[in-house]
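Z., the sequence and structure:
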Amino acid sequence: MLGDEHITYVREAAMGMLQKLHAMMHACVSMSTNGQEVVNPLENKDERHDMRNQVAVVRGFSDLMLMDVPPGHQSAQILDHLRNLADSYCGVLDQIKSADEHVNVFAG
């Protein structure tokens, strides 16, 4: 049976991902305003891979839990929102990957 602790776990995992993304963005902005060379950690293939795995956990658990939630239940809205956030996050990772591959084609 689906309990509040399951939804809390997925929500906390999603919030952890968002906090990590915000920390990365803040570091990039700080470097930029201080005149330092900006290195986006998500340009690193391994870092993107790790983040994508975390997103997959949130997306997968949200999908599984939605199967147990009655239609119209408040948890369904939360889980659907988390799925949409995960999909958006993957879209950002795909854009970074595409840009990185584009740069590597010209660099090689």
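The mean pLDDT is 77. Residues 10 and 58 are 6 Å apart (CA to CA).

Let me know what you think.
H.
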